[in-house]
Amino acid sequence: MIAQQIINAVSLGGVYALLALGLAIVFSIVGLINFAHGELMTLSGYALLASLVLGFPFPVAVLVAVSCGALAAVAMERIAFRPMRGASVTSLLLTSFAVSSLLKVVFQNGISARPQAVAMPGWMTGAFSFGDFTIGVGPSISIVVSALALIALEVFLRRSVTGTAMRAAAEDFDVVRLMGIPASRIIATAFLLSGLLAGLAAMLWVAQRASVDPLMGFTPVLKAFIAAVVGGLGSLPGAVAGGFLLGVIEVLLQATLPGAIAPYRDAIVLSGVIAVLLVRPQGLIPAVRAQRS
Amino acid sequence: MPSLYRLHRAALCAAVFGIAAISTASAEEIIIGAATAQTGGLAPYDQPALAGLRMSLDELNAKGGLGGKYTVKLLIKDTRSDTAQTATVAQELIDAGAKIMITPCDADPSISAGQLTQPLGIPTLTLCGSAPVLTGAVGDVMFGTYPADNVQATAVADFAVSEGRKKVFLLTSPDSTYTANLPEYFGKVFEKKGGAVVGRGTFSMGQPDFSAEITNIKGLADKPDLIMTAAYEPDFPAFIQQLRGAGVTIPVYGADAIGTPTIKALGKLVDGVVYTAAGYAEPGSKLEAFNAAFTKYAGHAPESTYEVNGYEIGLILDQAVKTAGSDDPKAVRDAIAGLKDFEGITGKITYAGTDRMPLRPVALMRYEGGEGKHVQTLIPDAADVPAP
């Protein structure tokens, strides 16, 4: 049972890590916490639903959904954030809230306020067992996908020119621009990556909850924000560490707290976050160059 | 002369306001304020219920209005599913002259609106809020309309016992009165009738990770043969998806909030899930006729029994105004509280002798192959229903 709970924790932590990473990539480059990140997930969720309704095979539908998330992120940058470039951090933050609220209302009025059921293929609700130990297919996929995405991102950032430029931009954007690398390309790539991560996280999230609704992005973006702050704002390894830490703490508390205290789980988690920040104000793995915030 | 002047002015004022008062009275208009959620988490419940209410008010207006003489003007304001916002819009509706208040499908916002209407004596009806503590928390102007949680839970428990189920696991969430209390009412009845509660778990609404709780269920030494929860969307789909995903096949029963198209659309995943409704449209029943009429009115079939429940609220108000013989809020309130065996669409509705939560039939339904199948309709024995 303990092994089972560890799998649960890693699986949830992996999703949080993907989300936190999406926030951190954008933050490291433009100093913006994009609170509309959750709506990218919602959009991917609806894209998945639409593709399935249109009769696409499941893998194609997933591909369409993830691409929609990525493209929507780029569009969001082009339409909402590019005109605000150079604006204060507060203005950017408010812009992201505005985009988030706007999209929620569009989903509610344009699609439906009611959650829409997403029929996941039967094999995804299956489970395989080793002795008296069962692992669900869902959590396994979740762990594998998170791990692969994290590795792929790491390779991209280390091995490609754009990736290297992005890492440099996170340290000192002005110098990167002086080197002749176009700022717009770096920023657009950052949003594209964050959209991809949001799309992937959305698939794992939807696979767990079996429905999509206009407000589904709120909780994950909040968790991602907490994870990113605990990990160290703007630090990519920090975001991953923060995501896993949050997932592990949540599952362990849910598993072990006695019934009477269980409702205070979130309060305990957040107190833990405060404790971490008291000891390490810059987060677990601070960013190389602390950003304005 | 100043005193005479003042007197003169007072008389003038009285005359003007008198005329004003007479002119509104001669129009015989009654304002009903609807503080309901058009957006947010409660919207999927409030909107269908409100659609049913609008339909009945439109029909009544065509026949002269409530009690045949008070044309209804329905003012609707969005609460955004927020408790504080509900109080704000309720106050706006009161200021606009609402003489009857309609509140959302949940106890907490309904109570916040009720706290404003109670001192003014404005009769207040929740669309489908079903927590039995709801009316007591506000006072004598507050009425439930849907079968109360403790009544629904008793119906489901009676059924579970009759099926021979012995051990139940209760999954609750302290985040709302409905999700916190309904399974506990079930537990009380179930234990009284010989069953046992072998475990309890909690969840946070809106957080889709149930893995830890499900592992706990799997690890129980005393295996339950039933899981009872009042979780609804989006939590219920997440729970059942992960429960079945973890290889647990124990049946899951719930209540009215999972009788929705979203849950139905989960298909095979929810096979065997038992839930409740305010009624079942048997062939030739009044409810079947209503469903046809509603489809014509709204352009789509009713999604659930919230529509008919909303429609019946219109009928209840009509009857109450007829009995009261006026639109005086206090007289209307007394008339609602005195209703006995009122013929609604789903069956007989009684307020007399209750704590303003109606006695009315509960239909038990079960999902099979993506359809809601009728199991039975019953009015639980009042002696079995646990106190709120």
UniProtKB/TrEMBL annotation, chain A:
GO terms for biological process: D-alanine transmembrane transport; L-alanine transport; L-isoleucine import across plasma membrane. Its main location: membrane. It is a multi-pass membrane protein. InterPro entries: ABC_transp_permease, BCAA_transport_permease. It is found in: Cell membrane. GO terms for cellular component: plasma membrane. The chain crosses the membrane at residues 12-36, 48-75, 87-107, 127-157, 186-205, 225-249. One of its GO terms (molecular function) is L-phenylalanine transmembrane transporter activity. It comes from the Bacteria. Keywords: Amino-acid transport, Cell inner membrane, Cell membrane, Membrane, Transmembrane, Transmembrane helix, Transport. Belongs to the binding-protein-dependent transport system permease family. LivHM subfamily. This is Amino acid/amide ABC transporter membrane protein 1 (HAAT family).
From TrEMBL, chain B:
Residues 1-27 form the signal peptide. Keywords: Amino-acid transport, Signal, Transport. GO terms for biological process: amino acid transport. Residues 30-370 form the Leucine-binding protein domain. The keyword Magnesium does not apply. It comes from the Bacteria. CDD domains: PBP1_ABC_LivK_ligand_binding-like. Pfam families: Peripla_BP_6. PANTHER family: LEUCINE-SPECIFIC-BINDING PROTEIN, PERIPLASMIC BINDING PROTEIN OF ABC TRANSPORTER FOR NATURAL AMINO ACIDS. Belongs to the leucine-binding protein family. This is Amino acid/amide ABC transporter substrate-binding protein (HAAT family). It comes from Rhizobium loti.
